[in-house]
Amino acid sequence: MRRLILSLIIVLLSCGLAAAQMRFQGATRAVAEKVEKPKPKPAPKKKSPPAPKLPPAKDLFGAVPGPAPLAARAIGSYSKGCLAGGISLPINGPDWQVMRVSRNRNWGSPQLVQYMERLASDARAFDDWPGLLVGDMSQPRGGPMLNGHTSHQVGLDADIWLPPMPDRTLTLQEREDMTAVSMLKDPFTVDPKIFTDSQVKLIRRAASYPQVARIFVHPAIKKALCQRAADVDKDTSWLGKVRPWWNHHYHFHVRLSCPSGMAGCENQSPVSGDPGCGEELDNWYAMIKKSAIWMAEQEIDPNAKPGKKKNPKQLRDLPGDCKAVLTAGGNELLSVDDELPPRALQAVASKDAGPGVPILTPAQLEIVRNGGKLGIPLPDRNPNR
After folding, report:
1. 288-315 burial, b if ≥16 CB within 10 A, otherwise e?
2. Does some domain include residue 222?
């Protein structure tokens, strides 16, 4: 009996050990299979075809002859943007004429065109200004220009020549050949025989409207405005909008604020209210003194056309909506191998609107180097006040 029980125990133990061994071997095989089984390789990603190469943005926008048939909108900033739904200022108006018509730059937002028409009318009615000679506004779809400007890209900028409009309609050829008159007699001083109270009134009128953000003039013109503003109007609050800037000696540049509620239009910071006739103007004079000395020493030709800009903006550098502006109405983008159309080439070849800044003569250069001042101070028009 004992032998029988012992035999059964041995059999049971043997069966248990065999079952355990089988389970162990099965688990071991499962682990091995799991470890050794190769992971499936991910499917190769399909490569997108390379984007077609495009010429610089200035060529793309300069090649388009007409506006984008979209809702009117200034997109981006004054120096990096475009214009949808632009309209043109007629080349002839009751109190304005557009110059350099071949450039096709008499376009802007509806707000800019309305402003130009009102300024021309008010200046004639209230300031006896015979009419505006209108320089560059924007291209039909805004954007970077083929030549001449960094800003003027969103249809809110316009150049206005400082000489008065003639009392007749100029021919198209005259508008190409006529040169604006510089207001300067040297790099630091306006010529009081040319820059008169009439120009002061015109700039004051241009700055007086609430939608105006900035007006840019040469530092010498800003200085003359600071000296004369009170002579033409006791209210000189408009002076703070008038800012000094390079090369604005035969025209002034009007910049409007973004129209209220216009999404995607980027304003500049508002002016501080300081008239800008003190330290800021002194700093500008220090800069133009260095520039005048350098130009005279290097014998720079002030009327030479500037060379091509390095690394011009590409379409990808502008707001995303600008591609839609360019292609609106079925317009096909210029390819990198395409030549500019004849009208665009004509715009590039057009004559500069005005002369360069005056260059110091050797005698003047010696005076300036030694700390002397050029020009005759403007006369005191109200010595008893």
Report:
1. bbeebeebbeeeeeeeeeeeeeeeebeb
2. yes
